[in-house]
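To whoever is on call:

I kicked off a structure prediction for a single chain this morning and the downstream step that reads the tokens threw a length-mismatch warning. I double-checked the sequence; it's 331 residues and nothing unusual in it as far as I can see. Pasting both halves so you can look.
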Amino acid sequence: MAGTILPAGERAYRVVRPIATGGFSVVYLARRSDPFGREAGREVAVKVLDLPHLHERLRDAPPAFLDPDAPLAQQMAEVRERFVNEAHLLRQLRHPNIVAALDEGELPGPRGRAPFFVMEYVPGADVGEIVRRSGALDWPAALAIVGALLSALAYLEREGVMHRDVKAANLLVRPSARAVPSAADVRLIDFGLATAMTRVPRRAQVLFPREVPTRPGMWWGTLAWCPPERLAPFLAGGEEAPDVQVDLWGAGLVAYLCLTGVQPFERGRFATDADQFAALIEGRYPRPRALRPSLTPAQEGVLLRALALRPADRFRDANEFWAALREAAPG
């Protein structure tokens, strides 16, 4: 792909190198290559649906959100529609902490035309990489990162959108010479599993042009970041948990990770898959101050509430979560 020219309307982009791979796609660093305008040479990220790899993946091990009994062609069409929805959604969202989409197009290939879309390029590392490299973050750095995430989630709630895959790997932070990152350096990425909240059915038609239902009873995203009530619906007390709780749970785990250096439900912490599953639905994880004694009781209390087992015991929305974090600030 290096050197390939990707046309997108009146603009074109030259691929430089791959920078990330996902389950069904590859993200490339590219540069604006057409001679028009003042953005010639601008670095961008281009996400391309990897049709050859997609075909192999679906043939061998389709993901849980797809019907395993559906024909391969139908499964591929559904993944393609999700990809197109992601591009369309990002072109409409406008928030400083959500990655911006700039263009979209199609690339001819041996298995048909592969859709792609162009995004702002965010150099740096994801929050998981930052914590693995540096350990738990100090309070101001954690507050900047989690605050930026909660600002993005508050915006998504107003727009009627669930991200459904909030995790450290989907939160990028630009490098900075400052000791504390700025909220402006943080971007929420990867809206491939996003969907409309159930309270805004009409908005769904605008945000998501392709109707792609999720199979009933299926969880999506990464198990270690999945809200427990999605795995054990009885935890919602016989009622459907509010849509907003899906992403707030992920935000709570990001906050826990930033402040303790630990993701308590990562698979590597458990002997078996069953142990991991049980810990999630039983709410078993180390108290934050056991991992980081310097946390205040108020700071620990915010994390414990964010990760309460029952949705009704957590923060109602991102704004309430953010207010609690600010109030718990030391000094």
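Update from on-call: the warning came from a stale cache, not from the record. Cleared it. Sanity check on the structure: Residues 205 and 211 are 8 Å apart (CA to CA).
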